[in-house]
Design goal:
This protein has 160 residues and is mainly α. The chain has 2 domains: 86 residues, DnaA, N-terminal domain (GMP Synthetase, Chain A, domain 3, 2-Layer Sandwich); 36 residues, no CATH class. 54% of the residues lie in helices and 12% in strands. It has a 3-stranded mixed β-sheet, covered by helices on one side. It is flat and about 80 Å long. This is DUF721 domain-containing protein. InterPro entries: DciA-like (IPR007922). Pfam families: DciA.
Length: 160
């Protein structure tokens, strides 16, 4: 009994059944470790935010906590300075919590938010006199690519 090429192709193209998140975490140790670390940082973030002034909460994020050092990231220099002035008070408040037992220092670094600024082309307007100069220059150019480029630029002139 043979297997047709169509059957082999159909078998090879089938996607495996989807796994539940619980199964993925149980089977893949690196993913499990990453998920656990993210949960731990989330809990620590909540504890730090509870000790910060309300205005600072959205500008302060835990980057790491190990070897007695808590690294906080802020959105700009202003908040880094404000956190620096509150550093001793914050350290005293956190050291009381069992999650921050052994806290020896707090470092604050600036990391601006990762927002992409939309590029807006700054279109300069070309006067008709400038366009005439470009056309004149193009007439005397022997290189066809340069001539075409100058002529394209001249066509962008504003017409009053």
């Amino acid at each position: 009994m043979g297997v047709s090429i169509r059957e082999v192709t159909a078998m090879s193209l089938r996607t495996p059944p989807a796994k539940t998140p619980a199964n993925l975490l149980r089977e893949h140790k690196p993913l499990q470790a990453l998920f656990s670390a993210a949960q731990r940082l989330g809990k620590l973030q909540a504890l730090v935010e509870a000790q910060l002034e309300p205005a600072a909460r959205e500008h302060c994020q835990i980057a790491s906590w190990h070897d007695g050092c808590l690294l906080l990231l802020t959105s700009n220099g202003h908040w880094a300075t404000r956190l620096h002035y509150q550093q001793r008070r914050l350290q005293r408040l956190l050291q009381v919590l069992p999650e921050f037992a052994g806290l020896q220092k707090i470092q604050v670094k600036v990391r601006p938010p990762n927002t992409q600024v939309a590029y807006q082309a700054h279109k300069t307007e070309l006067s008709e006199a400038a366009a005439d100069s470009l056309r004149s220059a193009a007439e005397g150019i022997g290189d066809p690519k340069l001539r075409a480029a100058l002529e394209r630029l001249a066509r962008n002139a504003r017409h009053d």
